[in-house]
Structures are given as C-alpha cells and as structure tokens.
Amino acid sequence: MTLHTISVLVENKFGVLTRIAGLFSGRGYNIHSLNVAPSQVPSFSRMTIVVDEQEETLNQIIKQLNKLVNVVEVIDFRNTENVYREILLLRVGVTKENRSEILEVCNVFRARVVDATKDTLTIEISGSEFRIERFVSMMQEYDIQLLTRSGRIAVPKPEK
Where does the ACT domain lie (predicted)? Predict the structure, then answer.
C-alpha cells in the first residue's frame, strides 16, 4: 500500500469539510486518514488527507481540490522532503504483575503515561507511523481496552 499525503488549507466556513469529503466519496476515492485543525491563521484550517490511490488518480484529486471555492492552497507531499507525525492514545488494563513491564515498554518507546488508575494506564505516544505500529505491536500482549490514533499530520521541510 502506497499512502500519499495532501495538505489542504481551507477557509473556516460551514460545509467545507462536507464538500471535501463529498468530493472523495462521490468519485469513489478512499480516505485512509483525515485530520482537520485550525492553522496559524484563525480564519483558516489545515486538512491533512492521506489516500491510497495511484499517481493518476492522485493528480485528479489535487486538480479537483484546487477547484473548490473555499480551498486556499493544496500541498502535494510527493516531491518534497517532509516531517510526518501521528499521535496515539491507548488505554491498557494493568495488574500488579505487569504494570512495571508495561511502563518499561513505554520507557523504551518514550511514551508518556497521561492518566493512571489502579487498573489502567492511559498512554500517549507520538512519532512516525512505523514507530506507532511497533508500539501497538508490543502492547498487543496486554489488555488494550481502547486505542485511538490521530492519523498522519505533516509539514514540508523548508527549502535550503
């Protein structure tokens, strides 16, 4: 699977997300992950869309995104150097016997415990998708109660 990342700067207006999602669903394009949050300018939001599509289809998606009224900028991450990150929150059941093992795995991956009870730990980790996948793989032997991921976010590296 080859995942491609597109960043879309949009105006903060009612219905923009619906129109962009409609563009994808109406043409049968699959969104692998979608992240939307305010940008450095309060009147704009940045959408990071990750798709699993062929080059020709991806070119079509970018052209169609650029035609939408509330789209300010589309960044195609294929031909640039980029910084990618993802965040994961995971709640795992713990016992007296395995609590220290779980904390050691967290330490190895530089994950943080952000909430704890007698029976659970809620863990936060950020990094590359590969790092997140390895962490989840290590945690599979424990009692994962809840797992949520942000999906990929990205910024292009500045030109030198």
Answer: 5-79
